[in-house]
Fold:
Amino acid sequence: MTDPTSLTLAQARDALRAKTLSSVELTRAYLDNIGKAKGLNAYVEVTADKALQMAAASDAKFARGEGGPLEGVALGIKDLYATEGVHTQACSHILDGFKPQYESTVTAHLWRDGAVMLGKLNMDEFAMGSSNETSYYGPVASPWLPPNWDGARAKAALPGDKKGLLTPGGSSGGSAAAVAARLCVAATASDTGGSIRQPAAFTGIVGIKPTYGRCSRYGMVAFASSLDQAGPLARDMRDAAIMLTSMAGHDPKDSTCYDAPVPNYEAAVGRSVKGMTIGIPREYRLDGMPAEIEALWRQGAEWLKAAGAKVVDVSLPHTRHALPAYYIVAPAEASSNLARYDGVRYGLREDGGDIIGLYERTRARGFGAEVRRRLMIGTYVLSAGYYDAYYVRAQKIRTLIKRDFETVFAEGVDAILTPATPSPAFGIGEKGSADPVEMYLNDVFTVTVNMAGLPGLVAPAGLSSAGLPMGLQLIGRPFDEETLFSIGAALEQSAPKLAMPDAWWA
Amino acid sequence: MSVDQATVRRIARLARIAVEPHEIPHLQGEINAILSFVEELSAVDVEGVEPMTSVIPMKLPMREDVVTDGEIAAKVLANAPLTEDGFFVVPKVVE
Structure:
């Protein structure tokens, strides 16, 4: 029998329905893989008993001829989704011991549709990071081997600080590593500035950040509320489409959640792109961008042309201001959202004499360095005398960024093609230790999409000369995820199929 | 714009994060690196541009003004580090 963990979500779903595979078998195979992959540090909590119970319940449903769209499919959940009674800390020390009394809407949708939970996945603390190195639970190693390393050398580096191994990106690093290393069928992730798309590019998988409002944010640990959005990481375009169809949908508990029916995104996979217009924004051509990223981008445009699309040059003149404006808006919203962690209502508590001392000590000890830094920046840009100069100005620039996209879409462009990241994956411990801005530059191609609230999809498109995955990004009109899945599938058809790395870590 | 050490201490106080004196110079450097990164925004022409308030134009949903949950004190307190008689416990704040 084939290894059930080698199946895509669509294949596993079909095998489960055909009863050639049981959910308990599938779930056990994944729990087995997870047990052998502890060194990667992708999971921060494995819910084996719960997983097997849910799997048995799914098998019972199949026996009765019932079952939802994701019945029996074993998923990993990013640690920022509230899961009732189960570890939910956004990988922060300040949420020590927190077990939600309620379920997030996105995960509730997945369980409604029959999915099985394997456990909670590692991430950057409060989703603030691009390499999963800010997690309280330590970094995640990518299943991709560093250039010129063999499996034995990489395995020997796992128990230590993991220096030299590759990062899977962040903040959804655990989710990306788990999908690429076959530690779950697919995973939930979240994206505030690129946290789904950059890890997808780094690990050679598919990720989509849908339009702001497409998924409910209820029960997601908040980072920057006007930018945060849920989305899946999955092995291919079809799997991502199946996941998003379940995750999305209206929720009265989130007033920013969009009230419209969710299309069957899977039906968009394989739809022709003939006659579609793809925009290539000249402002995304950066100085010092590696030649192979530039070449991949050009290749992607050629593939879409060959599939019948029209490729045109477009201009998004305010692109370069998106990243600096993001580093005002996101910390400002974070400083407000994270004010709730005070040592009183949940999580860590450090005594400090009076109540102010209690707050200050709890927060100093509970937040890691990157979170503290962003909270201080956010506090500063919102403080009296600076609010207009920083925050209001950044929100005006956000209007300009959105207008750029609206202009291009009004000219008849169906989607925009860009590189996903300025480079392939880098090493753990390699970036950002001296200058935080060095790490921030990872998001240069992805933040514009959050700032404008648009959907963005990353598809794997090839390998670098050093053998590492590289991705391309598609940006769509608001709530037109279907077009992105169709174009993404066309790219997937044309791009060389990436063989996922062998399990050197096991 | 850049911040001096007194401002770093003031921001930390406002953010309710205790910082030790030896951490100040390092934090000052990092905050100034980020402020210099965002400095270019001051040159952008934003004359007459409305600041964004909602990224997707959407009518704020309304619902009936009625009680929809409550009476779940035990759940609310379930994760609190310190409780007493159905209340959160904090250090004395009123003399």
